[in-house]
Specification:
Number of domains: 2
Mean pLDDT: 93
CATH class of the largest domain: Mainly Alpha
Low-confidence stretches: none
Strand order of the largest sheet: 4-3-2-1-5-6-7
Number of strands: 11
CATH architecture of the largest domain: Orthogonal Bundle
Distance between the termini: 56 Å
CATH topology of the largest domain: Rna Polymerase Sigma Factor, Chain: A
Helix content: 40-55%
Amino acid sequence: MGETSRRARVCILGATGSIGRQALDVCAQHAEHLEVVGLAAGSDAKGLMDAARRFDVRNLALAEGSPETRAQVCALDAATSCEFGARAVEELAGNSGADVVVVAIVGAAAIAPTLAALKSGARVALANKECLVAAGSLVTAAAAPGQIIPVDSEHSAIFQCLQAGREDEISRIWLTCSGGPFRGYTRDELSRVSAADALRHPTWNMGPKITIDSADLMNKGLEVIEATWLFGVAASKVAVLVHPQSLIHSMVEFEDGETIAQLGAPDMRGAIQYAMSYPERWEAPAPSPDWREMGPLTFDAPDLDTFRCLGLAMEAAHVGGTMPAAMNAANEIANAAFRAARIRMTEIDEVVEVVMDATSPATVESLEQIFEVDARARRAAEACVEELAR
């Protein structure tokens, strides 16, 4: 994807969310390298239309929408094609003709579009955690070597560190974590925080679901599972390290005792851009830190007694099979319930634990099986939420 080659065609799924908008910023900055050919959104018809006009994109998909919003999108112009529903997003992922598909859809809804993009042969710039958490064996089996490039800042950092060594030389992955807005809280203090409190992340600008996951450290647990699939390591080789400054995005310790760290500004556009530019590096999308002014960098172990979601996710990683899918589904329900003020933050892990205790893990065999496990876990989680909310 150098300057003398044609522009890489990019399709962005989740184009109106935080990652999707930042991916569009990267495409605008590097228009000489990148051409946007497809856009999908959940229910934000206006945002989808605005992005389509800005980049002159004719292939669109909207997962949800009223008849009125559908009519608005379809009225863009006669040359624009917009399909509707979850199946439409999957079709766009597989048939847009893109060289790079950015998967920035939240939740397990990303699994089918990710598989469709992989089947098409496109590079997948993966910003979604849940499809690897719930269906890691299926997704990685469908991918050619190097076809998935991670967009998560931590996994992008690990990917970059591995340019200095091989996966079979990894001794340990140090997965860094800011600690979120409630670092240092007791369990009792955590039980009294509101969703508004939790949505004020100290260093990262993200969507609401992932921001809550970051506040209760579930996000870091999902990332542990994600790392096992992306880099072919056992969960026991992934250690979580609290690093409040969010400047070291992760580190890889190799078997010879040497550790390689990736540092950069806490700005997702760097990781997004690298997933599209790899193996090249382009002009920075965000201001670079002046390391003379950064001050001390500090590290600590996570508090697993207070932030129990992290421990539960790590347990699911060790159990494997369908357990991570059940855990993930339960968390999605509990996370939404907390944002709706139906349960307390400390009850998120209660919901997840109840569902995990009721789950008999099995070897992952098919996407249909994963969807069944997901649906069953969601029903159980919703029943648990109802009980807690009484």
